[in-house]
Model the fold of this input.
Amino acid sequence: MTIDSFCEEDTKALAMMTAKEAKKGDIICLDGDLGAGKTVFAKGFAEGLGIREPITSPTFNILKEYKDGRLPLYHFDVYRIEDPDEMYAIGFEDYFYGDGICLIEWSELIEELIPEDAIRVKIRRVPEEGDDYRSIDFD
Done:
C-alpha cells in the first residue's frame, strides 16, 4: 500500500494512525534517504502511542526508550552500525521480543536481524511532486 504525504503533518497523522493499530511485539522498519521523514514518522508514531516526551533521532545513542505511552517504544537508529553483530552488544533481542514496540530507522543496515513479520515502511522523496511531498510504502 502506498500513501501520499504532502507535508510533515500528513506523515505524522499517518504515523499516529499506525501507532493506534500497533500491538506489543511489533517491529516497524523505517527506511529512506537522509531527510526523507523517518524521524517525522517516529514523532507521529510516539504521539499516537501517547508518549509526551520529545522524540529525537537516536543516531548517536542507537536506542532511546520511551515508556510513558500505551506501550513502551524502543526507537532505534542504526545508521552508525557498521556490522549487524554490534546489535548483540546492546541486547537488541530483548527489545525485539519484549513487551513494547520497536521502531527502527535505517533497518536495511541490519536486514539479517529483522524478523520476517516486521512491518516495513519506506519513505521516499519525489522531487518532481514538490519539496514536501513523500511517497510512503507499507509492506
